[in-house]
């Protein structure tokens, strides 16, 4: 490969390592042998999909629990409102002052 680019083997290795470190290439260089083999890293798309699905399910479950708690509090008439001085004026309250 170095002959195709007109570079020496260390130059090619340096450029490939720079590309790997910058994230442009997803792989690693096997420099144990004299052949200097570039091996691509493979990702397990199935496990990534399962992880994303489990995360989305957990987020939805948490949101549903919060909504159910809010509904139960409203049904029990346990709605807490801010004190009058700290509340923002509602548009209907502003019109009454005219």
Automatic annotation (TrEMBL):
Main localization of the protein? cytoplasm
The UniProt entry, under InterPro entries, shows:
PCI_dom, Rpn7/CSN1
Q: Which residues form the PCI domain?
A: 1-34
Q: Where does this one sit in the cell?
A: Cytoplasm; Nucleus
Q: Which UniProt keywords apply?
A: Cytoplasm, Nucleus, Signalosome
- Translocase listed as a keyword: no
**Which GO CC annotations does the UniProt entry carry?**
COP9 signalosome; cytoplasm
The reply on keyword Thylakoid is no
Q: What is this protein called?
A: PCI domain-containing protein
